[in-house]
Design a protein that fits this description.
- The complex is a heterodimer of chains A (268) and B (242).
- Chain A is mainly alpha-helical.
- Chain A has 11 helices and no strands.
- Chain A has one domain.
- In chain A, helix 4 packs across helix 9 and helix 5 packs antiparallel against helix 9.
- The longest helix of chain A has 30 residues.
- By secondary structure, chain B is an all-alpha fold.
- Chain B is elongated and about 60 Å long.
- In chain B, helix 6 packs antiparallel against helix 7.
- Chain B has one domain.
- Chain B starts with a helix and ends with a helix.
- Chain B is 64% helix and 0% strand.
- The chains are: A mainly alpha (268), B mainly alpha (242).
- At the A-B interface, helix 5, helix 6, helix 8 and helix 9 of A face helix 3, helix 6 and helix 7 of B.
């Protein structure tokens, strides 16, 4: 199943990985200027994580695709907390190393027979860690390296005291697992799966914006401008991605017929 | 402080082993059980483990200032209650809704009731429903899993609210909300990491302690011990104020 699919991909996995790491790191550090950057530059990282899940789950896991998304985000959020506490770039290095050790452990003890599982888990943990750090710093109002104890003074009140971290955890997990889980089957193609990843990325950014509005409203700080900008960005990405996905699906389908509900079809 | 940190790391590694044993004891059916062709509850290993583990974590949060053994036992009991309700509702749907008798496939005689299962198995399937043996095994499994979840929660909560006493009761009268959510997320992470190792090794379907797949438990528990130790360092980094 995977051998065929690995040969004809529209985007090379290595390109996606380089793009994901670069844009995630730039997003976190650029969120010093505005949290919108962290939210916007998290999109390529989510696409990368969805592509990695696609490559792993193509071998067949035996427990369903959602398990690998939750596993990735469990590793990611633990490392992301440590990363925001120390330094994001150090967090990425820890994520890559610990993911590699975890994957090598699983393949050495013959629990799963997937070739180069260590590399896959390393990529997955790095992507999950970057997504978590981007969305968490977007909710907390941008990563600020000048503040001493940034994690304790900004991230904890924004995400942990309000409980928004649960929402961030599950939506990031959804971004990793949902695209391949929704698209898998005989006619699965990388381009279409990654278009679903863009759709889910839009939903994620929207929810991060809602979480920021909630934090600002609870803490009584006002200044909703950047939160509303994040929500608008998320909505635009979601709607654009959805229509793009529908256009491609209808082009590749053998035949489509409108069911009559809603009455007037207006899909380009 | 250093001794309590090392002790916490060992406790987290032991909790990984307990979670692994818990997943091995649950009657997990996976996708085949949804069609009534495998013994167990019709959902994935990881989701069942997460459901019972999260119930235990909620109980651990409610008992934040009690001694450690009270937290662990209550977390285990609440996980067991959740799992018994889940298994009995699955059985009600199987028996009353679809007319399927519960039966085990890997053994002829039920290990608990000593009844013969052979006449009830439909040809071409590997058992159906949750029989008494699977039920008892599931109760034990969820108890062990809940204790494992609470074992991760306790050091994480205490360290992030600045207390380095691991076992005794706490002087707090109000919960430290940010420490509770930090500890919950970290315990959830450790839970998923170990539950997934066990789920991959059983390939998604297991009946209980009599299943042939149960023999791999030593190897899998070793992996869980090392992996929890590795990510326990991350948990300590996240919880200890630097």
């Amino acid at each position: 199943m995977m051998g065929e699919a690995a040969k004809k991909v529209s985007v090379d996995p290595r390109t996606l990985a380089i793009m994901g790491v670069a844009s995630g790191l730039v997003g976190i550090y650029a969120s010093y200027l505005s949290p919108v950057f962290a939210a916007a530059l998290a999109i390529p990282v989510m696409v990368w994580s969805a592509d990695t899940v696609r490559r792993i789950a193509g071998y067949g896991l035996g427990t369903g695709v959602p398990s690998i998304g939750n596993l990735a985000l469990s590793m990611g959020i633990l490392v992301a907390i440590a990363g925001l506490k120390l330094q994001p770039i150090l967090g990425v290095a820890i994520a890559a190393t610990s993911g590699l050790i975890y994957g090598v452990l699983i393949s050495r003890f013959k629990i799963l027979g997937i070739p180069s599982f260590g590399r896959f888990m390393s990529e997955l943990a790095t992507a999950a860690c970057l997504v978590c750090m981007c969305l968490m710093s977007a909710v907390a109002g941008g990563y600020d390296w000048t503040v001493r104890d940034y994690f304790g003074s900004r991230v904890v009140p924004a995400l942990f005291t309000t409980g928004m971290v649960a929402a961030i955890f599950w939506v990031s997990s959804l971004a990793a697992m949902h695209p391949y889980n929704a698209c898998l089957g005989v006619g699965e193609r990388q381009g279409r799966t990654l278009r679903v990843a863009v759709v889910v990325a839009g939903i994620d950014i929207l929810i991060a914006g809602i979480a920021r509005v909630g934090y600002l409203a609870i803490s009584g700080k006002g200044q909703f401008f950047d939160a509303l900008a994040i929500i608008a960005l998320g909505a635009v990405v979601w709607i654009y991605g959805m229509f793009d996905f529908l256009r491609v699906s209808m082009k590749e389908a053998a035949a489509t017929q409108w069911t009559g509900i809603p009455p007037k079809p207006k899909i380009p | 402080m250093l001794t309590s940190m090392i002790m916490a790391l060992v406790l987290i590694a032991i909790s990984g082993v307990l979670i692994c044993i818990g997943v091995f004891l649950l009657p997990i059916g996976g996708a085949p059980a949804a069609m009534g062709t495998a013994t167990g509850v019709a959902t994935g290993a990881e989701m069942m483990a997460a459901g019972s583990g999260l119930t235990g974590l909620l109980m651990a949060c409610a008992l934040y200032n009690e001694p450690a053994w009270v937290v662990m036992v209550n977390a285990g009991i609440s996980s067991s209650i959740m799992m018994t309700v889940l298994m009995i509702s699955a059985n009600v749907i199987y028996m009353l809704g679809r007319g399927i008798p519960p039966a085990l496939a890997t053994v002829e005689i039920d290990p608990v009731t000593k009844e013969n299962n052979k006449p009830f198995i439909t040809p071409g399937t590997v058992g159906h429903g949750v029989p008494t043996g699977g039920y008892v095994s599931g109760i034990f499994g969820s108890f062990v899993g809940g204790v494992g979840g609470a074992l991760t929660f306790i050091p994480m909560y205490r360290f992030s609210s600045g207390i380095f006493d691991l076992l005794g009761s706490l002087p707090q009268t109000r919960p430290d909300l940010s420490a509770i959510s930090l500890a919950c997320i970290a315990a959830l992470g450790i839970y998923f990491i170990n539950a997934n190792i066990a789920a991959y090794s059983i390939k998604g379907v297991i009946e209980g302690w009599w299943d042939p797949k149960f023999k791999q438990i030593g190897r899998v528990a070793t992996v869980c011990f090392i992996a929890s130790f590795l990510f326990g360092i991350m948990v300590l980094l996240a919880s200890v104020p630097l």
